[in-house]
């Protein structure tokens, strides 16, 4: 059986937070000191990390569990698919929807985990978290649970934005929908659909024909610096669009409706997918693009800088390669890796700007299925920080 670790400390004290802050102290300053993207920090949360005293999960998980035995006694802390910085040494990180699909994830509770990385020790502590719920009946169709706690059979939440008032916007793939939740994770409105885009899960429920593939909804969600708009990037091409071309839709958070403005991001290959999208300023975004490989078959794991101003007038976001995650300099051989660090995971779904020259990137370990770091072993959730050779010149409102 795989090793089970409980590193979850509700209401963690000053020691954990102090370690987290110690690990991030090297981010200070905005003057590049490297000539190529360079690893500056590494931490890892073990795959077998569970929320103690929660609920059993994984009763329908099948396949190669890499040494773990299902069902699990508690809810796993796993599959990170979106992140926001709380600017106090902690981060709110969105767990993925469960075990790979709607049919086997009804006992996985959708949750926002609060994490504190401690790079000095290479560890990550889980210092809290909230479940997503719908106590006021905002979802108009039947949910999996009568207590209206949301599960991986109800929504596939893949992206997250946190407003200044602490409320959340979440991007879902089953609709695709935008979900609006308060600081306790309670839905504030009915799920907001995107006109003309229907995922198979919604098609099955409503009878309206699907226009995109399964799990191809909102993989990235970016907030404008002032918080007025959020931008949802689809993971899959909509029927009728050019293959490999993805829609980025602008949503007005005040009016709570789409503005009608839409941009296009083109993948390097139709076989690729995006993992996350966050804003750098009013015009630029950081976008993770990846192939489906892991371990020895991982080739394309990249961070692009994308600009909606379309300076070459080709109708697409302008793309500039920022970081090749399979070729990150590691001159100090951090965490025991060689002088070239690779991030060879199937799904890499989290990026956050720490300052003008530093980023953090996390993988989604698809617990317990992915095995990209060590063949035959369930991947941990790794958390890396990277220094850039040039300043991002990010809008300061996004950094506080």
Describe the structure.
With 400 residues, this protein is mainly β. The protein has one domain: Methylamine Dehydrogenase, Chain H (7 Propeller), CATH 2.130.10. The chain contains two helices and 24 strands. The protein has helices at 14-24, 200-206; strands at residues 38-45, 50-51, 75-76, 80-85, 91-95, 111-118, 123-131, 157-162, 168-172, 177-181, 192-193, 218-223, 229-234, 245-252, 257-266, 273-279, 284-290, 301-307, 318-324, 328-329, 340-341, 347-355, 358-364, 381-387. The chain has a four-stranded antiparallel β-sheet, with no helix packed on it. A four-stranded antiparallel β-sheet has the order 4-5-6-7. Strands 8-9-10-11 form a four-stranded antiparallel β-sheet, with no helix packed on it. The chain is globular, with a radius of gyration of 20 Å. Mean pLDDT is 93; it is low at 9-29.
